[in-house]
Amino acid sequence: MAEDYALPKGELMKGKKGVVTGVANHQSIAWGITAQLAAQGASLSLLHLPGMERRVQPLADSIGVTSLAAADVADDASMDAAFAKVEADLGTLDFFVHAIAFANKDELKGSFVENTTREGFLRALDISAFSFVDCARRAARLMPNGGSIVTLTYLGSERAIPNYNTMGVAKAALEAAVRYAARDLGPRGIRVNAISAGAMRTLSLAGISGGRSMLAQGRALSALKDDTRMEGVAGCALWLLSDLGLSTTGEVVHVDAGFHIMGLPDDAGA
Ligand code: NAD
Fold first, then answer.
1. Domain total of the chain
2. N or C terminus: which one in the chain shows less Cβ crowding within 10 Å?
């Protein structure tokens, strides 16, 4: 949680303007990133799912962010209106954070082959992967001087993780989209990267069957024997979104306490 640790303060984002999507509550990864960017002097606009105002407004107030807009990424009209508000509030953009994912609960448990439906598969891909392409297009049009775009992914794109199922396929599409967008937008000076975060206690994790066990096992199987911490994820976002990240694009950076490098658990063969 952003308020559980001292945010490094500074001026790395001073003079930079950008958008963060995906704040649902104080545990959201997007909120940790928002708080870190604000502590480094960024001017921010928050795009949230319609209906989340009651939760997002007090968080925005707590760090002096006044630009908020509701946007459902599955609804083009609401995206048009939200980006018009962003342009009116901020003008041009230097950065954009995509922290949005959704799959039906029924598709996040049990057998991938038996439980994946056409409707659920397309919805997960639409909201979790196509929305990134749509956001990148809209954000890039507001970045005449270059910029940086970051999205959030998970190891379930590369490895078969129990219950992650359709979302793993959506994250694989998302990571491929990052590489294509990086190639496409590179000549315009726009960098595009993903952060592959380890399991963290958020609303999204609660929607996955066995989410708690993903947390405990992620810690036990990690190289650092630690949870993935918000400080680390927000710090990585700060690197990628600030000028510290110059020359890095098309990358998927793992911030998971070293979970992804491990092969067998420590007691294997004991
Ligand atoms: P979260 O539930 O706080 O954030 C997900 C956000 O997606 C919410 O704000 C929700 O409102 C938004 N959203 C869903 N459908 C939407 C729609 N149609 N239009 C607009 N917004 C919509 O959970 P989180 O864990 O902070 O998730 C943020 C990102 O991080 C997601 O992409 C998630 O897959 C990724 N991620 C999470 C973990 C984890 O363990 N929590 C690990 C790696 C990656």
1. 1
2. C
